[in-house]
């Protein structure tokens, strides 16, 4: 079945460091891909999305490119801030069929130190 | 402002009691969802509804029940049959059940004592 695999955390970085969180997926067809962020004690917020191959989603300095050849959607940010500390979830929705469910990875905890 | 509200934020219940979690949205979305989140794990789908008066089981529906009598509301009941109900519960909605993103509420943390 469809699945999403994320790098295990926690990822600990110093402020202004470069961030990469790896995400790969397995899906039939052509899924839409998402990154969600969850701050402590809160619900999930959509960070960015991409709906077809080679699309780049971007928001708040974060970017991710839909790579069909490597089935990946890695999240990157050039310079992280303490306020970016959160759990990041990669997810997909597979197009087609009666149940277009959102399938999540297990999440990656990012801790940014001043 | 449009959004999804869940109440209460924290809920405590004794073992063996049923409890209902509220979810309301004013986004005019057709589809609504309930997820369960356990520490260190991703989200797992409990139930979803594509339209009023219709709902489908997700991956972990056992011990839960839902209703969808109004477009805006999708309450979740955690029954005494749910063996391990302590978790963080998240409600979400989307325009439809296609490829569109889902928007999440702030969550309810349920603790069964």
Descriptive report:
The complex is a heterodimer of chains A (114) and B (113). Chain A is mainly beta and 114 residues long. Chain A is 0% helix and 50% strand. Chain A is built from no helices and twelve strands. In chain A, strand 10 (86-93) and strand 11 form a beta hairpin. Chain B is 0% helix and 50% strand. Chain B has no helices and eleven strands. Chain B has strands at residues 4-7, 10-13, 19-25, 31-37, 43-51, 54-57, 64-66, 76-78, 87-94, 103-104, 108-112. Chain B is globular and about 35 Å long.
Summarize the structure.
The complex is a heterodimer of chains A (114) and B (113). Helix content of chain A is 0%, strand content 50%. With 114 residues, chain A is mainly beta.
List keywords for this structure.
heterodimer; A: 114 residues; mainly beta; four-stranded antiparallel β-sheet; 50% strand; B: 113 residues; 0% helix
Write the layout of secondary structure elements.
The complex is a heterodimer of chains A (114) and B (113).
Chain A: E1 3-6, E2 11-14, E3 19-21, E4 23-26, E5 32-38, E6 44-50, E7 56-59, E8 62-65, E9 75-77, E10 86-93, E11 102-104, E12 108-113
Parallel strand pairs in A: 2-12
Antiparallel strand pairs in A: 1-4, 3-9, 5-6, 5-10, 7-8, 8-9, 10-11, 10-12
Chain B: E1 4-7, E2 10-13, E3 19-25, E4 31-37, E5 43-51, E6 54-57, E7 64-66, E8 76-78, E9 87-94, E10 103-104, E11 108-112
Parallel strand pairs in B: 2-11
Antiparallel strand pairs in B: 1-3, 3-8, 4-5, 4-9, 5-6, 7-8, 9-10, 9-11
